[in-house]
Design a protein that fits this description.
This is VanZ family protein. By secondary structure, the protein is mainly alpha-helical. Helix content is 76%, strand content 0%. It has one domain. The protein has helices spanning 2-23, 39-62, 70-93, 102-130.
Length: 131
């Protein structure tokens, strides 16, 4: 467990933060003039982008030599999508003060896809530069 947390500790902490934010009662935030209509969707996208990048970073650091294959990208994407779906199910069944929304899950998936694309592009660019 210790080697896992050595590399994936930041991702686990961020996932717990995402779970806390998605479970919190934020009904009064919708009425605040500081936030615009799509702020919730943008937040979901950003939270999952960050979580997926941290997860990818942990996987890259864990490998010797450092690398990120397509298979690993699919596994990370599947784990992120599962986590997003789990949050929506929890909001529907347990956190009844929150509402489950398919659009939130779509934004979770979109943020995760953007993160995997960015990581794969960065890893490819670094490998290309070394040649």
């Amino acid at each position: 467990m210790k080697p896992f947390l050595k590399y994936h500790g930041p991702a686990v902490l961020w996932a717990l933060f995402v779970l806390y934010i998605c479970a919190a009662d934020l009904s009064s935030v919708d009425k605040s003039p500081l936030f615009f209509e799509g702020f919730d969707k943008l937040t979901h996208c950003g939270l999952f982008f960050t979580m997926t990048v941290l997860l990818c970073f942990g996987i890259i650091r864990q490998q010797k030599p450092h690398g990120f294959t397509f298979i690993k990208a699919v596994v990370v994407l599947a784990a992120s999508i599962f986590f997003g779906a789990l949050i929506e199910v929890l909001q529907a069944e347990i956190f009844t003060w929150r509402t489950a929304d398919w659009n939130d899950l779509f934004c979770d998936v979109l943020g995760s896809c953007m993160a995997v694309f960015a990581v794969m592009l960065t890893v490819w660019a670094i490998g290309y530069e070394k040649k």
